Amino acid sequence: MVKINLLLTGTTGLTGTLFLGHLAKTSPSSEVHCLVRPTSDCRPLESLNLNIHYLTGDSAINQTWDTILAKHTPTTIIHIASIRHVPVILDSLKTSKQTPHLIVIGTTGVYSQYNQYSQDYKAIEGQLAQYTGSYCLLRPTMIYGSERDKNLHKLIKFCDRYGFFPVFGAGNCLLQPIHADDLAQAILSALQRPYLQGSYDLSGGSIVTFRELLVLVKKLLGKPVRQVYLPLNLGVWIGTMLENLLGRRSPVRREQILRLQEDKAYSHDAAQKDLDFFPRPLAIGLEQEINLLRGHGVISS
Length: 301
Ligand SMILES: NC(=O)c1ccc[n+]([C@@H]2O[C@H](COP(=O)([O-])OP(=O)(O)OC[C@H]3O[C@@H](n4cnc5c(N)ncnc54)[C@H](OP(=O)(O)O)[C@@H]3O)[C@@H](O)[C@H]2O)c1
Prior knowledge:
The protein is of the alpha/beta class. The protein folds into two domains: 2-142 and 179-202, NAD(P)-binding Rossmann-like Domain (Rossmann fold), CATH 3.40.50; 144-176 and 206-265 and 280-294, UDP-galactose 4-epimerase, domain 1. The chain contains twelve helices and 13 strands. The strands form four sheets. Strands 3-2-1-4-5-6-11 form a seven-stranded parallel β-sheet, sandwiched between helices. The chain binds NADP nicotinamide-adenine-dinucleotide phosphate. The site of NADP nicotinamide-adenine-dinucleotide phosphate has 28 residues, from helix 1.
């Protein structure tokens, strides 16, 4: 068995890449083991000043974890890939009789009033609470920050191209998106504080309604973005149809439309106190994202 300090998942994604960037700056040349898929694009990690060892597999399946844990004893596992894989990881840890410190990225989706979306997260968090080792669960809100985000870059791109955006329902519900880099910084803070246990909600630096978000995008793009009001039911129907037709390639999901009708602002006071978490205001983060999108030719300059 090889004792290893840090095992990570999700390092080729938006948050994971930024996290490794922070780690490379604060602890240059650190040794890390990254679980990646055979199809993962690891090129963005190659320029980092880290000693990266790649373990290939799928973090959603037992066999991968059983194989890794038969050979390695990690002190800490940072699992960024998906909270849905946690039951499999806990199962393999139990089999291998290992209890590393776990840092898991969850989601504030666990608070959704729509049971069909929150019940899985609640059940998984319940299983994590039974873990005999220590763990720190970080629950981000909607993540934004670059063309790799799943949310705001699509909205910005649409507004830039068409000069309008549909608002399904009243558009009054609250949002508090978190910049991926603030989340990455929070993961590093959690790693540096292994004594911290329990869960932390990680929301962004500003609370806005959906309509205010569109006004902000319009201001930062410097071009008109009309708000086109449409009935909620129509939006749900469109989301459902697109998902049925395109599956995971659908630009919008039924869940996203439905959840636009619920407030998604959550206090990050506990994270501020324990993790030194001071996320940037949305106007700053969005301006950075728009500049990035312009620089990458994703939107017009
Ligand atoms: N996006 C949001 O608004 C949002 C909101 C709340 C919480 N979250 C959670 O926050 C975390 C980070 O989100 P993100 O947007 O930064 O992620 P992301 O860019 O989608 O990256 C996901 C990462 O996980 C890896 N991954 C996914 N499934 C895997 C599997 N079965 N086996 C091994 N690796 C796998 C991906 O590898 P590949 O490179 O091979 O694809 C990638 O490195 C995720 O857990 C997400 O669920 C996201």
